[in-house]
Specification:
Elements (H helix, E strand, L loop, with lengths): L7 E7 L4 H8 L4 H8 L4 H22 L8 E3 L5 E3 L8 E8 L2 E8 L3 E7 L6 H8 L2 H9 L5 H19 L10 E3 L9 E4 L2 E2 L5 E6 L5 E8 L1
Antiparallel strand pairs: 1-5, 2-3, 4-5, 6-11, 7-8, 8-9, 10-11
Helix pairs in contact: 1-3, 2-3
Length: about 220
């Protein structure tokens, strides 16, 4: 997958693993990460976190030319992980998302990036969420969809907006109603507007994919 300026790599993996594989993954984590894993209330969630973080370390290590255990992270004010200053010369950016046992990783050189993955499903308060968090245009488009298309339309919009916010890296300092994205099933993923700037002039690149049956993901980067 490529933007107009630089390649973006996307890796999809499953997080379900046998206990022996989970233990091997845990050996790649830092003490802080293992401590975080122990704080999960359910073993399934802890295992998924361990496997997801170990896989991230392996993918970054391959691109940095170091051991997985040597990868170091720092965290922004809104919790977004980035490589430590030790790896600043690599100019490697990454982002991670997972839903159930599906994990999605995105990598880019030179540009901040965001990725989000969700299981497409019906949720009882989708209409209220759309009215509250979607922009006026997005909400109108969502409500114009046939009922059978609304779950996919909802999660198209949600993942695309979340990917943009994650790439932006400053939490909700970019309010969700200040930019528009496409959401109609079958329509290409695109940023239509950022505040008063048309999407084509905003510098944002957006794409979507179905990582596996029943899931949708979105990738965003600001060139």
């Amino acid at each position: 997958m490529e933007t107009t300026d630089a390649p973006i790599e996307v890796v999809i993996t499953r997080l379900a693993a046998e206990p022996e594989a989970v233990r091997a993954s845990a050996a790649l984590l830092s003490d802080a990460e293992r401590h975080r894993a122990r704080r999960f209330a359910f073993e399934r969630d802890a295992s998924r976190f361990i496997v997801a973080r170990a896989r991230l370390r392996q993918l970054l290590a391959q691109r940095l030319g170091v051991r997985a255990q040597a990868v170091e992270f720092e965290y922004g004010a809104y919790g977004k992980p980035v490589l430590s200053r030790r790896f600043a010369d690599s100019d490697l950016h990454f982002n991670v998302s997972h839903c159930d046992d599906v994990a999605a990783y995105a990598f880019s050189c030179g540009h901040a990036i965001g990725i989000d993955v969700e299981a497409v499903r019906e949720i009882s308060d989708a209409d209220n969420i759309a009215a509250r968090y979607f922009s006026r245009l997005e909400n109108a488009t969502y409500r114009s969809l046939e009922p059978c298309d609304r779950p996919l339309g909802f999660f198209n919009c949600w993942t695309r907006k979340e990917a943009v916010v994650k790439a932006f890296g400053h939490g909700l300092s970019l309010p969700l109603d200040r930019f528009d994205v496409t959401l109609t099933p079958g329509e290409p993923a695109k940023v239509l507007r950022v505040e008063d700037t048309p999407g084509d002039a905003s510098g944002w690149w957006l794409d979507s994919l179905s990582p596996t049956a029943g899931y949708v993901a979105a990738i965003a980067s600001q060139a």
